Amino acid sequence: MTNYRSGFVTLLGRPNVGKSTLINKLIGQKITITSPIAQTTRNKLKGILTTSNGQIIFVDTPGVHKPQHRLGEILVKNAKSAINGVDMVIFVIDSSEKPGRGDEYILNFLISNQTEFIVALNKWDLVSQEFRNLRLDQYKGFFGINRNFHIVSASEGEGCSELVDRIITSLPNGPKLYSEDTICDQPLDNLLSDLVREQVLINTREEVPHSVAVKIEKIEEMKRKNGKIFTAILATVIVERSSQKAILIGKKGSMLKIIGQSARSNMSKLIDGPVHLELFVKVVPHWRKKESRLIEFGYEEDF
Predict the structure, then answer these.
(1) Which pLDDT score is estimated for 67?
(2) Full domain range(s) for residue 285
(3) Is 201 in the same domain as 266?
(4) DSSP of 183-229, one letter per residue?
(5) CA-to-CA distance for 288 and 194, rounded, in angstroms?
(6) Where is the domain boundary, 137, 170, 203?
(7) Is residue 273 situated within a structural domain?
(8) What residues have CB less than 8 Å from 40, skipping those under 6 apart?
(9) Are residues 22 and 119 in the same domain?
(10) Which of 9, 102, 104, 179 sees the fewest Cβ atoms within 10 Å?
(11) Between vectors from CA 18 to CA 202 and to CA 297, what angle results, nearest 5°?
(12) Does 38 or 177 have the greater pLDDT score?
């Protein structure tokens, strides 16, 4: 397999440009959250595409922006770490909009780090025919006339196979780094817990800090009386104080119901089938300071 190629590819871009949707489309299966709430990402998620002539390990990142607060600084730091040691960086652009200050910030960030990259103009299906030449001229002026663009639509699939071909031909010769049937290096538990934690952050905002953890206690396929299969999921939301627990549960369980309904909807899309979700809230004081609790809730230090 001397002509086989493999390597790591980081997708970088502003929030809501469609990075996660693009990864899902390129792999052919939903494996990552498509959400504008960037701070939900705690574990680096890698999506793996294996073909007959190569294997691409996609690294998903939070949306990059010029930080205005500590959270923004952390997200940008995570993005920086995601471009180190990879074989390729793809700068994903929302082509339905003209270049903006956020794009300029990322461009300067890549240039200052001397990072080679290719540009994927995503959401091309949202650009009307009469404006497509103008939009291309705008981005040629922004990036430089010699920059090659890959026009794609993550939602429609346009240009995705061509992008895969370009990536594989640019990767170094190497073996398969993951087995052929692996499409994500994160266990299902992590993906599901992120979906719940995402809804906690969306619905409670600043009322509950980012000290929330979610532990998936059980995932089980079950059969209804009518013979239809569904997935039963039991999850525990961990907080540090009783006041946080009260906020999460809400009046007569109203907040927990909202969180559960939204999380279940996203879980159904991830699993591609009906889901029954049960949520419980548990107080574990100072869990962030206890090594045993961190490991129990899935937060081990990367080496």
Answers:
(1) 61
(2) 188-296
(3) yes
(4) -BSS-HHHHHHHHHHHHHHHHHGGGS-TT-EEEEEEEEEEE-TTS-E
(5) 17
(6) 170
(7) yes
(8) 33, 194, 197, 198, 201
(9) yes
(10) 179
(11) 45
(12) 177
